[in-house]
Design brief:
CATH class: Alpha Beta
CATH architecture: 3-Layer(aba) Sandwich
Number of strands: 5
Structural class: alpha/beta
Distance between the termini: 28 Å
Strand order of the largest sheet: 2-1-3-5-4
Order of helices and strands: EHEHEEHEHH
Number of helices: 5
Radius of gyration: 15 Å
CATH superfamily: HybD-like
Strand content: 15-25%
CATH topology: Rossmann fold
Number of domains: 1
Length: 166
Amino acid sequence: MKFLLLGYGNPGRGDDGLGPWLVERLEQQWQEMKQGRQLITFLTAMQLQPEHVFDLEVHDRILLIDAGMGTTDPFVFEQLHPRRDDSFSSHSLSPQTLLAIYLDTLRRQPPPAFLLTVRGENFSLGVPLTPEVLERIDRARDFVCQLLRAPESDWLQQAGRYTGYA
C-alpha cells in the first residue's frame, strides 16, 4: 500500500500553515518509529496545483491535510470525490477539482482520496500557529497515525463521522 500525505497551506499566514506543519511532524514521527511496512510519501505545498495529479497517480490512497476557517469541529475527516467547482485559478484549487483534473488528464478514476481539515483560528500574515491549533494538531496527528495502520474500510467508516471529539 502506497500512501500520499499532502499538507498544504501558507506557513507565513498563521494557522493556514498547519497542513505542512502537521505533515512534517508526521514524517519525523514515522521515521522515528521506523514504520517501514508502509510506503508513505510526505509532501507539502503552499497550495494545490494541477501538477499534483502526477503525485496522486503513483499512490493507492491519498490524505490531504488543510486548515479550515469555518470548520465547526476541531477537525473533520471526509472522503473526496471528483467535482469541478469555481476554485480553479492561479491562486486556488479545491481538492475536489484536483481530483476532477486527475480524471480528465489521466482518463481514469483517482485513488481513494480523503481530506482532514483542522480548524484554524488566526490566518494573519506573519503570526505563528495558535496554541489552540497546536492542541488540535496533536489530536489530528494521533488520528492520522491510526488511519495509516487501518484498512480502507476503516477510512470509509470514519469519513464524515469523525469530528475530532473524543
